[in-house]
Amino acid sequence: SGTEPEDNAFTKRLPFLTEADQLKSVLRASRLMTSDRFENSAEHSWHIMLYAWVLSEHAGSEVRIDRVLQMLLLHDIVEIDAGDHPIHGQVDHAAQAAKEEAAAKRLFGLLPEIQRTAFADLWNEFEAAESVDARFAKAVDRFQTPIANLETGGGSWVDYNVTFAQIETRVRPAIETGAPRLWDWLRPQLIAYFLSAKAVSG
Amino acid sequence: SGTEPEDNAFTKRLPFLTEADQLKSVLRASRLMTSDRFENSAEHSWHIMLYAWVLSEHAGSEVRIDRVLQMLLLHDIVEIDAGDHPIHGQVDHAAQAAKEEAAAKRLFGLLPEIQRTAFADLWNEFEAAESVDARFAKAVDRFQTPIANLETGGGSWVDYNVTFAQIETRVRPAIETGAPRLWDWLRPQLIAYFLSAKAVSG
Ligand SMILES: [Ca+2]
Predict the structure, then answer these.
(1) How many domains does one find in chain B?
(2) ipTM over 0.85
(3) d(CA B25, CA B6)
């Protein structure tokens, strides 16, 4: 019957897993490196988990990569309700944060109590960006788009008319705080790109 | 200069991460639950990591979920060269296995030695399906499509004219071996679906 414990434990998890399918239809502002279509938030999440793992030697020694991967697996799921907010777009940050809070409550609320709490705690830890794990996860989340844009001649920087000053304000802090060696590597490449882009457009 | 150790360590990892972008363009035989387009292998990988984590209480107590997640993060990356082989399509299994071996060699070969070996070992462990972690990972990999097909009135089963006997041969063993409680839950639902599908088509 439906009250058999094992059935029940699984049946209670299915709505969350089904709902998660919708993250594949949330489109980001950035395009694939290897195709002209926009990236969705599910495949983005997969890719930055790979980034985090492959680049884990650039994390501080106290970073626990298994927790970082779990944070990145979950980090964008609120976009199912709240949408993606492009870092270089115009956005009301307070309104966006409220929408994401509500989304976290609804989506994690689909899970049984023990997982609901664990997932919500991990998502809140990521958002707060205070723990070493969350800081490295945030750095990696910020790192992928610049790499893709450098590889594709500008990408979303061109679409949004982004300047080097905006990168310094909106991208640098998270990367520099969570993965300073990645920032040291990235910065000269950004300077080279924005100098040449300015020369072309100006 | 380019031989500075930190630069070098990162620069040597970038080609692998860039190449991985192509997994977002490998299409599977199954469609999204919530849209009519075909699923790609990158977003599929993200989704089954979430399945594995959410369903981890159905894994044996000796399963290490962090290793399962790492296996699932990597498991399809060989499809960048070898393509997806639908479980219900016609395929030369020996030729496919040889293509995947070659793909693993090329792709993991883009990484520095220490990661190359670690990633190749993990991928081989998944393919061999002998360890408890690999068995649970394989079970979850097989589990997602039936769930999606049940949720969408047949999905790829309809496209490929799949029978219950084929499910018993091609899907059941991996799920029953790696996550027997998930098979116990799934089986009656499969029987109900295929009985009604038969009634409709016959
Ligand atoms: Ca994000």
Answers:
(1) 1
(2) yes
(3) 31
